[in-house]
Write a structure and sequence with these properties.
4 strands; 106 residues; Endonuclease/exonuclease/phosphatase domain-containing protein; 4-stranded mixed sheet; Endo/exonu/phosph_ase_sf; alpha+beta
Length: 106
């Protein structure tokens, strides 16, 4: 996670939750409120449901442990594979996809 000087000064701490999830906590100007940024990289293997389930279980437990008064930002790399057919999605998707789409791309 790359941080500006200001963000480095506001960093309270960070936690690694395995190779795919990191959580960083930042102080805010509002006393007693923290911003938690959770960055995760989802498994790419569509065929291994156990790894995917473990990932989502771990992510869910991290989100559930946050204090409700705090702000949480969840940033995800979905490992989505999309097709070249972008009809109906031209405003948000280019034509540089693959021949097939994975489950995340649907």
């Amino acid at each position: 996670m790359m941080l500006s000087k200001q963000a480095q000064n506001d960093l309270i701490g960070w936690e690694s939750h395995g190779p795919r999830i990191i959580k960083a906590s930042f102080k805010t100007k509002k006393n007693g409120i923290t911003i938690n940024v959770i960055q995760c990289y989802e498994p790419a293997d569509d065929n291994n449901e156990d790894i995917e389930e473990q990932f989502y279980d771990r992510l869910q437990s991290i989100v559930e442990k946050r204090q409700t008064k705090d702000l949480t930002i969840l940033m995800r790399d979905l490992n989505t594979k999309v097709e070249m057919d972008n009809i109906g999605y031209e405003n948000i998707m280019g034509r540089n996809g693959l021949e097939e789409m994975n489950e995340s791309g649907k």
